[in-house]
Amino acid sequence: xxxxxxxxxxxxxxxxxxxxxxxxxxxxxxxxxxxxxxxxxxxxxxxxxxxxxxxxxxxxxxxxxxxxxxxxxxxxxxxxxxxxxxxxxxxxxxxxxxxxxxxxxxxxxxxxxxxxxxxxxxxxxxxxxxxxxxxxxxxxxxxxxxxxxxxxxxx
Length: 155
Fold this sequence. Notes:
The protein is mainly alpha-helical and 155 residues long. It has helices spanning 3-23, 26-33, 37-65, 67-90, 94-125, 131-154. The chain is built from six helices and no strands.
């Protein structure tokens, strides 16, 4: 197993873990910014809107920056957006929370595009289909991220 494959595996896993830390906190987010059901639906949709934008702008950016630099940028952006989102939620800042959730979605979509591009490249060079294991890494990240949040709440 090559370093390249292991690196992409870790990126799939990390993206899943990060998303789970946000999505599993829905009730706490709702309590923090006190939204009605429709407003909370729009809040959650901000992540999807950001992800769609991220996917749409990714092709050209990967060509310009190269995959390694692009993934460094998106990973840094995701972590920063999640931290800033946590701060705005703690302070009950509704508009900033919407905006930062959108800004969290953008690099998630961008990273998803590039991770799948790299998975396809790996798959084309491999005798065996590697994509299901890489997507399994994402699912494992979601599972463990949700478990991590659950344990954090208990302790």
